[in-house]
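B., you asked whether I could sanity-check this one before it goes into the benchmark set. Here's the sequence:
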Amino acid sequence: MGGKVTCTLGEVKNRADLVIYWGGNPAECHPRHFTKYALMPKGKFVPNGRKDRTMILVDIRETPSAKAADIFLQIKPTKDFEMITVLRAIIKEQPVDPAIVAEIGLSLEQLRDLADRMKKAKFGVMFFGMGLSMTRGKHMNSAALLTLAAELNAFTKFVAMPMRGHGNVTGGDVIMRWMTGYPFGVNLARGYPRFNPGEFSTIDMLIRGDCDAALILGADPGATMPQPAIDHLARVPTITLDPKVTHTSRISRVHITTAVTGISAPGTAYRMDEIPLPLRPALKSPYPTDEEVLRRIRQKIACKPLQLPPTVPMMTDAE
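And here's what the prediction gave me:
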């Protein structure tokens, strides 16, 4: 099973009466998420705003977001997959192993209450952050949560949506899906896309040292990735395109300053619910856009003669 059941933030604002944040801290990372879309605003089917909504936070520690939650469920680290699996079993009225429940850090009564609230909601939404997708299990945690949301639609309307960590990450996913059919972890070395998270994901490839060069576009992996991945970026020829000096640009062999998209360069950004937002520049910049730089690099590569690796002579029968 693949795909996800999702919606727009406008639907969340107008319909959602059960909001679950899983592995995220929107109070600090997405400060307007509560007030503009998920909790506070009055909607067509939730006319009383916050009074018509129940907010549940699932995390391994108490964060500032817990103060806004009606229910805070603190689980043990790296036990997200187990908790999702138990919830799927409870929803389907399947037996649950008490030993697995004990490892999660919650009681079976708490999990049954959560499953019951999910099934009885008129419109439920789960927002999941990097606390779910970047811990042990990684993409399998996300896949399990998306499957849980899909299975809840046998009882009510339920959707899931990732809480993106950086600007226009959704745009990268959308373009990759459009071009290759996969959102990330794609290898094009054979001339066609191959999808295998864990093998072709950026962090995994850097930690293993599989790549001997890197081109970074408008991102700062040097500030967020594990230290072994950062160390490998510093060892190989790394080129960074960014409007400002970052941790990554400091360890790069080449840093090309580019115009700021949406301020000095036109473009399209995708909101976290995959709604495209056209951006028109308000200011002029002396620096080229990312597109211009990439076009020039591509032209230079096209003019350069292709250098094939030396071939090994074949052995004959006589030899």
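One thing to flag: The chain has 13 helices and twelve strands. Otherwise nothing jumped out at me.
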